[in-house]
Q: What sequence folds into this?
């Protein structure tokens, strides 16, 4: 990273490609510093982590809030559907989904994102549309598709509200990250939570009614 920055400096004004590379380096460093230091993260620390001068960073961002919002916005913009094992029973597929969702939420970028929002709750309003779109693409859409397939197979009752079921699963999955300080600390806790939630959905809410 530092070599590319030095090259850009030696050439004078950076090209569009070099400028984009510098911007990415700043945003990546911002997420790293946010994850490591939380509210104590500063633009000076971001500049150092990115291998850039303070002048370069301050020329783009006058305050750390704007930088963190931009960094989080890029993460949200790159969000894609999570992938998980679609083989086995519905209970196994649901458990696989929850495990993968927990793994994604435990990744550094996700943790940095949550710290950014806790530092400046007002940024949530600014990022609301992007957050909803990313959440839908990453978590809701693949889950809803799996539930639709399960309903077509007769694994879910015909009158099951798939959208409400998907929302409930997502909320309870998120709850699994809130009850532990570090959701990646104990894989057994994640597995237990995933199995419990999958069993709850299959044996409770979505179970087809027995023939009369």
A:
């Amino acid at each position: 990273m530092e070599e590319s920055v030095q090259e850009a400096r030696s050439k004078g004004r950076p090209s569009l490609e070099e400028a984009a590379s510098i911007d990415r380096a700043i945003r990546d460093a911002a997420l790293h510093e946010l994850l490591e230091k939380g509210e104590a993260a500063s633009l000076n620390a971001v500049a150092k982590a990115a291998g850039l001068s303070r002048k370069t960073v301050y020329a783009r961002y006058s305050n750390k809030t704007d930088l963190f919002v931009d960094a989080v916005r890029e993460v949200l913009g790159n969000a894609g559907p999570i992938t998980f094992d679609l083989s086995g029973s519905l209970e196994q597929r649901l458990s696989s989904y929850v495990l993968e969702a927990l793994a994604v939420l435990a990744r550094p970028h996700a943790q940095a994102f949550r710290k950014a929002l806790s530092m400046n709750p007002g940024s949530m309003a600014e990022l609301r549309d992007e957050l909803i779109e990313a959440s839908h693409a990453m978590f809701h859409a693949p889950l809803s598709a799996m539930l639709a397939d399960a309903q077509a197979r007769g694994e879910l009752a015909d009158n099951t509200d798939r959208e409400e079921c998907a929302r409930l699963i997502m909320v309870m999955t998120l709850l699994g990250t809130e009850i532990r300080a570090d959701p990646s600390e104990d894989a057994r806790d994640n597995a237990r939570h995933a199995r419990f939630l999958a069993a709850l959905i299959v044996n409770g809410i979505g179970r087809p009614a027995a023939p009369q």
User: Anything to note?
Assistant: The chain has two domains: 16-68, 79-204.
